[in-house]
Design brief:
Elements lengths: L3 E6 L2 H11 L4 E6 L5 E3 L2 E3 L1 H10 L17 H8 L10 H15 L4 H11 L5 E4 L6 E6 L2 E4 H7 L6 E7 L8 H8 L3 E4 L9 H4 L2 H9 L4 E4 L2 E2 L2 E2 L4 H7 L6 H8 L5 E5 L6 H5 L4 E5 L6 H14 L3
Parallel strand pairs: 1-2, 1-9, 2-5, 9-10, 10-13, 13-14
Antiparallel strand pairs: 3-4, 6-7, 6-8, 11-12
Bound molecules: ligand FO1.
Ligand FO1 binds next to helix 2 and helix 6.
């Protein structure tokens, strides 16, 4: 099998994982979540694609985990003058990405080709593939009603109890043929340490993707984004509880057990290993937090060298 690695990705943990892999592997594909894409001011924002692109181009605001570093917010300030809502902090340079993407979409290009073109402009050599060119929208139900993920998480700061998660459009979405090819032609497929419900979950709802992963299960490895019953960053544990999934590495393994035969968990979670093995999964233990570049590369190297897919 070709020496290619494919990562299903969404969010900042995924960026760290991919950066670590790209530092040592010659060919890395990223299949990106599109469920949190969001229309704002007539612009199409693709947070997971952009965070990955900026992260690999060394443009990412590392502190926030999204947006362009040292960006300015003049456009947003002017939108406020015009009476628009400004809870979604779109920076000026970031806005250029959304504007050009939206124009290209209006001119008939698809998200796959636009992303490829943008990666070239940003000199990103990792191949970022949107999981589908169709629309999927992750929506969150709360006691206050149901809303887009960005509204729940950014506008209302994830305050309310989550009652349910829906992936509108996922059922009918066609898998990106490039994503299917990438899964088939890789020696290893990694489910990145992203939120299992809102970053990786929407992609697993696409039948063609789930089927392809299930077929390739032996070479699929998930990296846990949790230590104990908490997420390393973000609200993964909260969404897992809401979906009735045990918020720990075992719950994650069970959720992924149809599509994955290997899981990397934190050494602190080693007491869960036996229970996870009962799901017919191989368990690998190491340090999964990635606080700096050395830690990103160490985890990537552990995964590529230790996981016997
Ligand atoms: N997250 C926030 O918490 N606040 C923001 O104002 C915000 C703006 C933003 C702009 C562009 C972009 O690509 C991402 C942005 N994010 C923001 C992150 C985003 O809401 C989510 O964290 C991701 O969708 C989760 O993967």
């Amino acid at each position: 099998m070709a020496d290619v690695i494919t990562v299903l990705a969404g969010g900042t943990g995924s960026v760290k994982m991919v950066r670590g892999l790209a530092a040592q592997e010659s060919k890395v594909n990223v299949i990106s979540n599109v469920g949190d894409n969001y229309w704002l001011y007539g612009l199409y924002v693709c947070p997971d694609i952009d965070t990955m692109m900026y992260g690999l181009a060394d443009l990412l605001d590392q502190e926030k985990g999204w947006g362009v570093k040292k960006d300015t917010f003049n456009f947003l300030r002017q939108m406020e003058v015009f009476g628009e809502e400004t809870w979604f902090r779109m920076g000026d340079r970031d806005a250029a990405t959304h504007l050009i993407r939206t124009n290209m979409l209006k001119n008939g290009k698809n998200l796959t080709d636009i992303t490829k073109w943008m990666c070239e402009r940003f000199a990103v050599s990792v191949n970022i593939i949107p999981v589908t060119d169709n629309t999927i929208e992750t929506r969150i139900s709360t006691s206050k009603g149901e809303m887009h993920l960005q509204e729940y998480w950014v506008k209302y700061r994830g305050r309310d109890e989550v009652e349910g998660i829906q992936y509108i459009g996922a059922e009918k979405a066609r898998p990106n043929p490039e994503a299917v090819n990438a899964i088939q032609n890789s020696k290893l497929v990694i489910l990145a340490p992203g939120n299992p419900l809102t970053s990786i979950g929407p992609m697993l709802q696409i039948k063609g993707i789930k089927k392809e992963l299930a077929r390739a299960k032996k070479k699929v490895v998930a990296i846990s984004p949790l230590i104990g019953d908490s997420s390393i960053t973000g609200p993964a544990a909260k969404y897992m509880r809401a979906a009735g999934i045990e918020p720990n590495a075992y719950g994650l393994a069970k959720m992924y057990s149809d599509v994955c035969s290997n899981i990397v968990i934190d050494a602190k979670d080693k007491t869960l290993a036996k229970k996870i093995r009962s799901l017919d999964m191989s368990v690998y233990e190491t340090k999964i937090t990635m606080k700096n570049k050395a830690a990103e590369e160490a985890l990537a190297s552990f995964v590529t060298k230790q996981v016997h897919a």
